[in-house]
Amino acid sequence: MMTRKTGHIALVGAGPGARDLLTLRALNRIQSADLVLFDRLVDPDIVELARDGAERIYVGKEVGRCAWPQGRIDRLIVAKAKLGLRVVRLKSGDPSVFGRACEEITAARAAGIEIEIVPGVTAASAAAASIARPLTERGETDSFVLTTGTARPGDAAPDRARLAHPGTSMAFYMAVQRAGEVQADLLAAGAPAACPVDIVERASTPTERHIATTLGQLAETIATQGVTNPAILFIRYPKSLAGALSDTPRGIFAA
Amino acid sequence: MMTRKTGHIALVGAGPGARDLLTLRALNRIQSADLVLFDRLVDPDIVELARDGAERIYVGKEVGRCAWPQGRIDRLIVAKAKLGLRVVRLKSGDPSVFGRACEEITAARAAGIEIEIVPGVTAASAAAASIARPLTERGETDSFVLTTGTARPGDAAPDRARLAHPGTSMAFYMAVQRAGEVQADLLAAGAPAACPVDIVERASTPTERHIATTLGQLAETIATQGVTNPAILFIRYPKSLAGALSDTPRGIFAA
Fold this sequence. Notes:
Chains A, B: Keywords: Methyltransferase, Porphyrin biosynthesis, S-adenosyl-L-methionine, Transferase. The structure is a homodimer. By secondary structure, chain A is an alpha/beta fold.
């Protein structure tokens, strides 16, 4: 075997959870890695696919503990790649969708290290497949919005009012804690309380759960059913509901 | 081996093009299928993964020919599943994203046939990975919109004005022929001509091409570079461009 002079960094989409929703390319990269970094959202079954001699480093946070700061992750992957190692940074879902890949891409480039992004199945695709409801339906929804419930401290909150438009299908990532706010914003912007909502918790995993509700009952449903992240909230404002009332009774947590 | 009494239909995401961007689950379903239906957008390399004895049926259209009508596809997959066969309908990308899966789901359910959706990597994820530019960037874009350039005859054209909002990242599918219209609509709604655009043609295939341009030059670039579908047009309106002029010179095809 030839000695490698320079290493390689791959940001690899680990998919939504189920191990068999990995791509063949992701499997290849994991199996040929010298070092695998992963966090809480990546299934341990997937990390186990690494070869026996590969180093595995957990960089996520658990309740009550701190995650690795991003800068520490960046420095580690660059240092290891400079040693000639093949580094895989596993990202839940698809690295390009709320995967915060920018920092790692920038760090690798600044160090002159080759970086590859391996796309994955994003959680919204897996959730839609599980409930057999397409993200876009001809005639009813022509745009599909991926958005997140969280904003970085100091960032302006996302402007949700413009999403409240007939023909829009929305998937909210990591928005369980913000469901009341999302509901209130969309209703205030004129979306009907009758807009159908599908909540898919832990899509593609053995403990996946699907709950159907409406925009008007969203926050109440999340509270009474004890929904937790990771979950996808699908909110649809179909064209056929255009003009429906937005002020039908709201969930008690919506205010 | 036991005789199966009822068959099974799987709508399987074939991913964006490259065979190794199939998921392990998709590979499993293709390899265990008795019948595989596919269209023009699915790579022949993927269809070849079916076992030797499996029937392969091309249901797509080619230039100057008619595609199979959807109703004919629906009837065929239901009839074959009723014979006890395992039917795989391959869909380019992810079946839930502009995959027109509703009709097949409805037909299967009406006939009491079990239907499974196997999610896939959608073209936008593959294109973003290829150019190593995340679909969402913290602080700059908080919503990511998947939309299409085409509308069904008789449908209202998509309302693109509401997309022209700072903080929005857009991926247009199948929009090459409508690029002038998209450009004009977004500029008219106030999006700056300087909004960066990445065109990714045939993402993940050996003939993939990436062209960087701006919203103001979009249609002209597509014409002069001879871009054709399948292509993804990424148009970003970052928050940092809010307030920039929208009336800088436009491409000559934009009017």
